């Protein structure tokens, strides 16, 4: 626990003077004050995070954490568990949606095996397996507290490694068949939200399976009795290895004064855990989008974040975060390239 406490202790509040300087700069540009809406909010936030009015955000990475879920044996997903490992190979070959959208945004994809239930090897795969999938949370704790901590540590190390080689913006992505079930359980317990509101349709289950998925989440909470005031306990009992890993990525990004773009429902579950473990990490987060998954709006509310985009996407992987990168670049260009009232000879109101 000490190590995690050290990381949390190293997270600084945003730099108010840089935020104020960004506000002054924005208000001198040739537009009515505030008229670029969330682009301006983002520019101010990025200044506060980095301490620079025009930060270098040229190097960006999406960390895709992959892991399996024992709860799949309850029949909670529309797809079989082997899709997790098959999609990991797809990421490594560059053919998944996140690869395409990351290329479009000029970002790299870093794929981490933190708990896939198979032996995977590839030169570009970061092999950091904590265990081969979680246990079935409907019967027992998904993992031990120590395993959850270990997975968080993996995420912190990945974030440290990327920041150490000059990556300035991080984003979260994931792959794990069954992980909307774990995310829903986290939302229900940590957000104090009824199971039927927290559980959505994930990969696209029908009504009967959706009701069954709700029952499975209820059973997982009943069997494990997670302590809502102890986020690590909840994460270990009803979470997932990739969710724990992403919690670490978020804490690691904040420690390194890097903005961290949060993707969809599952990534937001990691953001919720991170915000409970370390409330000071929340200002470093940017919610890329609100996905189509039923509980995502409530999840973002619980973290205290407002989404940049509503695209009706429900894929995960980091796809929404990749799209949001292009908005970050747009915000950066506004700060750098727009004329001021003075330079353009435009009258102020
Ligand atoms: C081919 C395929 C690619 C995906 N990429 C992300 N997910 C998404 O779907 C999964 C969660 O949904 P559930 O909880 O219903 O299993 C996660 O792996 C998530 O990343 C995918 C799912 C599939 C089938
Ligand atoms: O919101 C998401 O990211 C999501 C929703 C459904 C399935 N996979 C991911």
TrEMBL record:
Active-site residue list: 317 (proton acceptor)
GO BP terms: cobalamin biosynthetic process
Pathway the protein takes part in: Nucleoside biosynthesis; alpha-ribazole biosynthesis; alpha-ribazole from 5,6-dimethylbenzimidazole: step 1/2
EC number: 2.4.2.21
Catalytic activity: 5,6-dimethylbenzimidazole + nicotinate beta-D-ribonucleotide = alpha-ribazole 5'-phosphate + nicotinate + H(+)
Superkingdom of origin: Bacteria
A molecular function GO annotation: nicotinate-nucleotide-dimethylbenzimidazole phosphoribosyltransferase activity
Keywords noted in UniProt: Cobalamin biosynthesis, Glycosyltransferase, Transferase
Entry-linked InterPro entries: Nict_dMeBzImd_PRibTrfase (IPR003200), Nict_dMeBzImd_PRibTrfase_bact (IPR017846), Nict_dMeBzImd_PRibTrfase_N (IPR023195), Nict_dMeBzImd_PRibTrfase_sf (IPR036087)
PANTHER family: NICOTINATE-NUCLEOTIDE--DIMETHYLBENZIMIDAZOLE PHOSPHORIBOSYLTRANSFERASE
NCBIfam families: cobT_DBIPRT (TIGR03160), PRK00105.1 (NF000996)
Function text: Catalyzes the synthesis of alpha-ribazole-5'-phosphate from nicotinate mononucleotide (NAMN) and 5,6-dimethylbenzimidazole (DMB).
Family, as annotated: Belongs to the CobT family.
Name the record gives this protein: Nicotinate-nucleotide--dimethylbenzimidazole phosphoribosyltransferase
Species annotation: Paenibacillus chitinolyticus
């Amino acid at each position: 626990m000490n190590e995690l406490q050290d990381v949390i202790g190293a997270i600084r509040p945003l730099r108010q003077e840089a935020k104020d300087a960004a506000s002054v700069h924005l208000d001198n540009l040739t537009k009515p004050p505030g008229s670029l809406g969330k682009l301006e909010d983002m520019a101010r936030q990025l200044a506060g995070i980095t301490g620079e009015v025009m930060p270098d955000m040229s190097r960006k990475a999406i960390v895709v954490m992959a892991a399996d879920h024992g709860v799949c044996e309850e029949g909670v997903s529309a797809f079989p568990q082997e899709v997790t490992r098959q999609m990991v190979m797809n990421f490594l070959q560059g053919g998944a949606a996140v690869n395409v959208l990351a290329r479009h945004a000029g970002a790299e994809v870093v794929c981490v095996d933190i708990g896939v239930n198979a032996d995977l090897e590839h030169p570009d795969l970061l092999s950091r397996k904590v265990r081969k999938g979680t246990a079935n949370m409907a019967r027992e704790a998904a993992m031990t507290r120590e395993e959850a901590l270990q997975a968080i540590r993996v995420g912190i190390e990945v974030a440290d490694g990327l920041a150490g080689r000059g990556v300035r913006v991080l984003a979260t992505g994931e792959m794990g068949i069954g992980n909307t079930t774990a995310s829903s359980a986290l939302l229900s317990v940590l957000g104090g939200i009824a199971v039927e509101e927290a559980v959505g349709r994930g990969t696209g289950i029908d009504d009967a399976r959706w009701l069954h998925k709700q029952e499975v989440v209820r059973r997982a909470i009943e069997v494990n009795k997670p302590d809502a005031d102890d986020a690590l306990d909840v994460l270990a009992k009803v979470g997932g290895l990739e969710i724990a890993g992403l919690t670490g990525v978020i804490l690691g990004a904040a420690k390194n004064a890097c903005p961290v773009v949060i993707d969809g429902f599952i990534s937001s579950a990691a953001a919720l855990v991170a915000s409970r473990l370390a409330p000071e990490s929340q200002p470093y987060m940017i919610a890329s989008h609100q996905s189509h998954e039923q509980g995502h709006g409530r999840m973002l509310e619980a973290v205290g974040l407002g989404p940049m985009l509503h695209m009706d996407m429900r894929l995960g992987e980091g796809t929404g975060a990749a799209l949001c990168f292009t908005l970050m670049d747009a915000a950066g260009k506004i700060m750098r390239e727009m004329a001021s009232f003075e330079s353009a000879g435009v009258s102020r109101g």
